[in-house]
Amino acid sequence: MAKSIVIIGAGQAATQAANSLRQYGFNGKITMLGDEGIAPYQRPPLSKAYLMGEIEIARLKFRDDDQWERDGIDMRPNAGVANIDRAAKMVVTKSGEKIAYDNLIIATGSRVRKISCENSELKGIHYLRTLAQSDALKADLDKAKSIAIIGAGYIGLEVAAIARKKGLSVTVIELAPRVLARVATPIISQYFENLHASHGVNIMTNCALKAFGGKDKVQRVLLEDGREIAADMVLVGIGIIPNSEIAIDAGIICTNGIDVDEYARTNDANIYACGDCTNRELDLYGIRMRLESVHNALEQAKLAAAHIMGAQPPKLDTPWFWSDQYDVKMQIAGLSNGATQHIVRGNIADNKFAVFHLNDENRVLAVDAINSPGEFLIGKKLVLASAKITPQIISNLDIPIKELAAHAVE
Ligand SMILES: Cc1cc2nc3c(=O)[nH]c(=O)nc-3n(C[C@H](O)[C@H](O)[C@H](O)COP(=O)(O)OP(=O)(O)OC[C@H]3O[C@@H](n4cnc5c(N)ncnc54)[C@H](O)[C@@H]3O)c2cc1C
């Protein structure tokens, strides 16, 4: 039985791993090594309520600062890890401290993908991953009159909504032909394009960024087609990169993230990994992939803790995610890749509907629910069960959502 467990990273997955280890009865030493200089906090509000100024830092934190010690977790927020010595079973921090482990959990998350073009280091160009970046973004949003957002993924669109609420003029510049192209189907992309347009956002798709312009700070965005967009500030949201370098350097197998099995184990039996930094199996879809979500971080952390403790692994859930934009809450269950039918239940114009994504056999692969928590919850169960339901049943509003499962065939 392990006596000392070291967790690299101090974010969502790391916190859950520590919590679950204690819940499974681990009473040895837990050392959590972070590098942000702050106790673990939730990231989702950084582009939502916190950025809007509706909630305080204290609400983001998973625990009060003094609670970590009371829970017997040695949480060190200024102890970035430089490397892992697998042979000696120890990690070495950037300041040279060596810390031995019986089991190691890597929960290093991911970092923003940076843009590289002329003037990309100008002041006023923001990225959003950390609390410090959210604070800097908020400070500029409160002064600026206009913002250009590069990338129409969830973070770009959430910041667009906040910027409009704060009264800025907003231009979103996207390389793909539609917003959310990497993560959503065309129906949902169209819905969000219309939603943002109705709030006065200028969405420019099929647009390639060439450079930024400005003297001391950014003043405009230059596009490949020669157009220029004036902007007092910029947010770049073009995706994230897994923090897997320390694992790669230690010889742990990584393929676009740290490869883990169904127990969140790496190819080293003493080392686990969880959260954004991993590449995991998704039995439900028969694929391996990287998931970037709270659900994934929590689930893998629980799997790792259970396996270390020899406990029954928790039941896997359908992957899920959410996004808040204006007065719209979108909740997503499952992955729509591979779906051939996209069935709308409800009325899109009411801002309250769900899209059920089915394969050729009418199996529910994913559900995108807009202001429809019932559809999300039931949809999540249908996805997990690979339920087979006809499009006619799904779109029939005379059948209450709770009764949908009863209409599944097989
Ligand atoms: C603005 C924003 C909004 C989001 N909104 C949503 C949402 O609505 N819904 C949703 O499901 N998900 C959302 N996410 C994603 C979600 O927050 C992440 O998937 C989740 O935080 C992943 O948890 P993690 O523990 O893997 O990584 P993190 O929470 O990023 O934690 C990793 C920690 O490890 C640290 N670290 C890295 N390398 C080292 C090292 N060598 N030594 C020590 N520490 C290290 C990092 O600095 C970081 O503190 C959002 C993310 C952001 C940034």
Task: Report the portion of residues in β strands.
Answer: 25-35%
Instruction: List the ions, cofactors and other small molecules found in this model.
Output: flavin-adenine dinucleotide
Structural class, from helix and strand content? Answer: alpha/beta
CATH class of the largest domain: Alpha Beta
Distance between the termini: 44 Å
Helix count, DSSP H or I runs of 4 or more residues: 11
CATH homologous superfamily placement of the largest domain: FAD/NAD(P)-binding domain
Task: Explain the overall architecture.
The chain has 410 residues and is of the alpha/beta class. It folds into 3 domains: 4-111 and 241-308, FAD/NAD(P)-binding domain, CATH 3.50.50.60; 114-236, FAD/NAD(P)-binding domain, CATH 3.50.50.60; 327-407, Enolase-like, domain 1. Helices cover 24% and strands 28% of the residues. It has helices at 12-23, 49-52, 57-60, 67-70, 131-141, 154-165, 186-198, 245-249, 294-308, 373-384, 391-395; strands at 4-8, 29-33, 73-76, 81-85, 90-93, 98-100, 103-106, 110-112, 125-126, 146-150, 169-173, 202-204, 209-213, 220-223, 228-230, 233-236, 240-242, 258-259, 271-273, 278-282, 287-289, 320-325, 328-334, 341-347, 352-358, 364-370. The longest helix is centred in the last third of the chain and has 15 residues, at 294-308. The mean pLDDT is 97. The structure holds flavin-adenine dinucleotide (FAD). Residues 8-14, 33-36, 43-44, 46-47, 80-81, 107-109, 128-129, 155, 243, 246, 275-277, 292-295, 297, 321-323 line the site of flavin-adenine dinucleotide.
